[in-house]
Amino acid sequence: MTGRTALVTGAAQGIGKGIATSLAQAGYAVAVADLNLEVAQLTAKELTEAGGNAVAVRMDVTDTASVKEAVASVESSLGPIDVLVNNAGWDDFMNFVDTTEDFWEKILDINYKGALRTIQAVLPGMTARKGGRIINIGSDAGRVGSSMEAVYSGAKGGIIAFTKTLAREVARAGITANTVCPGPTDTPALRKFAAGAGDDAEKVIQGMTRAVPMRRLGTPEDVGPAVVFFASEGAGFVTGQTLSVSGGLTMA
């Protein structure tokens, strides 16, 4: 065990679960934070039964009070948060012209402001302890754009830029801030999107797969190790960086 505690938002399933699993396997005590507490509890149980140390906590990243309560709960049960992974996210696929201001607000509230809330809740403690790791989950949509994801792409692009500036501000306190950008990843959310195409669902998945040089979609298990690297002692001199996990889909 590393003796360190990691808080992962949106960790009940999908990419978040993959990240939480990798961190637990690397010896971190993991707080599985999610809006869906029931599923988070199942994930925490899986990690514990596999030999890890994990607890589930309900967190609504769109609610500052909920974030603060969750952080306090985690620190009470696992100790100070050494690693914060902002993974919670949401999207829906549609042309920008068809979106509404309510849609914009939801996308920004979850994917952008959600990270701001958790960081602001955790950062003072990291600063006082002179160390910590902040890892934000962006998206290659925020690096190169993605059709039918204009607002989401903008939010994730904002996360990338925000992380670089944050890295500059907290560097002297021994805190690093980096972004991991998954490419197309086989998750329940992606399958739900593909299902919207009806009989063409499999064609949608095949099209995404063909676009990746490695000719497969990513998995949550592909993303976790990248987060573990940024969380590690070995990455102590790496900050303000953006790492794509996309099978070569983006190389810029």
Overview features:
Rossmann fold, 10 helices, 49% helix, 7-stranded parallel sheet, 252 residues, alpha/beta
- Tell me about the largest β-sheet: 7 strands, parallel
Instruction: Please report the first level of CATH classification, the CATH class of the largest domain.
Output: Alpha Beta
Give the name of the CATH architecture of the largest domain: 3-Layer(aba) Sandwich
Strand content: 15-25%
CATH topology of the largest domain: Rossmann fold
Structural class: alpha/beta
The average pLDDT is 93
Low-pLDDT runs = none
Helix count, per DSSP?
Answer: 10
Q: What's the number of domains?
A: 2
Question: What is the count of β-strands?
Answer: 7
Order of helical and strand elements: EHEHEHEHHEHHEHHHE
Fraction of residues in helix: 40-55%
Biggest β-sheet: strands ordered side by side in the sheet: 3-2-1-4-5-6-7
The name of the CATH superfamily of the largest domain reads NAD(P)-binding Rossmann-like Domain
Rounded to the nearest angstrom, the radius of gyration is: 17 Å
Terminal Cα span: 36 Å
Shape descriptor: globular
